Amino acid sequence: MEYVRQTVNGAELNNFITLPPMLRNRKVQVIVLPAEDNDIETKPKTKRRLGFVDCPPLPESFFEPLPEEDLQAWGL
To answer: Stretch 38-62: mean pLDDT, rounded?
Structure first.
């Protein structure tokens, strides 16, 4: 694995990340490692059907706004 190691002034680094106050005006050592490996081949994701849900389609009335009394009961 390749990495970059550099010593910089904390004030310069503070432009990129928020440093704790005790490191802001000191020399700090930064080591940058890759967050993920882009060389790995990934399989294309396929759509999967949820196996635990077996119900009829929702009726159109499901998408209608709730009555005012129900909204008040929920505090909306």
So the answer is: 74
Here the tokens at position 65 are 């706004």
**How high is the pLDDT of residue 69?**
92
Residues 6+ away with beta carbon under 8 Å from 9: 25, 26, 27, 28
- Which pTM was predicted? 0.32
Cβ-based neighbours of 67, under 8 Å, separated by 6 or more: none
What the block records as the tokens of 29 is: 């050592």
Distance between CA atoms of residues 66 and 35, nearest Å: 45
Strands (DSSP E) contained in 4-45 are 4-9, 27-32
| Token representation of residue 41 | 């081949």
DSSP-derived secondary structure letter, 67: P
